[in-house]
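Researcher: Structure for this, please.
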Amino acid sequence: MEYRYLGNSGFKISEITYGNWVTAASQVENERAIASVHAALDAGISTFDTADVYANTGAETVLGEALKGTRRQSIEIFTKVFGPTGPKGHNDVGLSRKHILESIDGSLQRLGTDYVDLYQAHRFDHFTPLEETMQAFADLVRQGKVLYVGVSEWTADQLRQGAALAKQLGFQLISNQPEYSALWRVIEGEVVPASEELGISQVVWSPIAQGVLTGKYKPGQPHPEGSRATDEKGGANFIKRWLQDDVLQRVQDLKPVADELDLSLAQLAVAWVLQNDNVATAIIGASRPEQVTENAKAAGVVIPAELMARIDEVLGDAIERDTSITATRSPQQREA
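Model: Predicted structure, token format:
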């Protein structure tokens, strides 16, 4: 495993992060989810990402159970706040001071720890003054419950505003967690340049495009039984945009590139996002421990420039680059 600094800080994390978004307390039974966390530790992964909203707090509980007995100082635990949790009442959502301060205590209890290494604003809150949000984060840093602060799916302008307020309050934003893959590049035009300017790294999710870049979905063929595309609990909704024969054929056409590097298609996809210097880590999920073991091998891989260019050529107009999409990721109205 290789390690990188997160933003303009002295904090190092593993190039591969284990995430348990839809794979703990949701699609995957707890025993297999815990085994996947242990496989991550065995592979040298030290960084673990979750959120209180995942499985309505259930994912944090599973992760906390899985990490019991692991030396706390040797791992990095990330979680997030924003989404509706608990009974989803009128104050159980957003980035108000009330919700942030109550949410961190719940997360710490479920995770079985006194602090989280990185606490992230899961989305931008259009209905709470940004000053209120950043002051709450500053207070948590001073209390020692949070070591570092990050955000997720913020636009370039939102990052600039948040970073300026953080600096005034005596801390810094060091990360942003966006979707990013060889097929989904909406952050490259504005978010990445702003982040480089501000000393913010990307902690990217869905580097294998919800599994499409693994090549397991074949054009003109039924989706594999038990795959995310057949999951009616919600997984199918996230992946359906990629399930077009043209896109699936382009992914199959990447196989010679992967073979040239002695990688699987999944490993190629994870290694691809890590070629971006502004990316500190790629979050991988898994429904089976062996998936973690295999995908962790993408760490440290260098893809030559000519092969990066060939990937661009193969994927062609299947690549999404529209920078305006990031602004649509944060709710424009309260969910509760």
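Researcher: Any notable elements?
Model: The first helix runs from residue 30 to 42. The CA atoms of residues 153 and 178 lie 5 Å apart.
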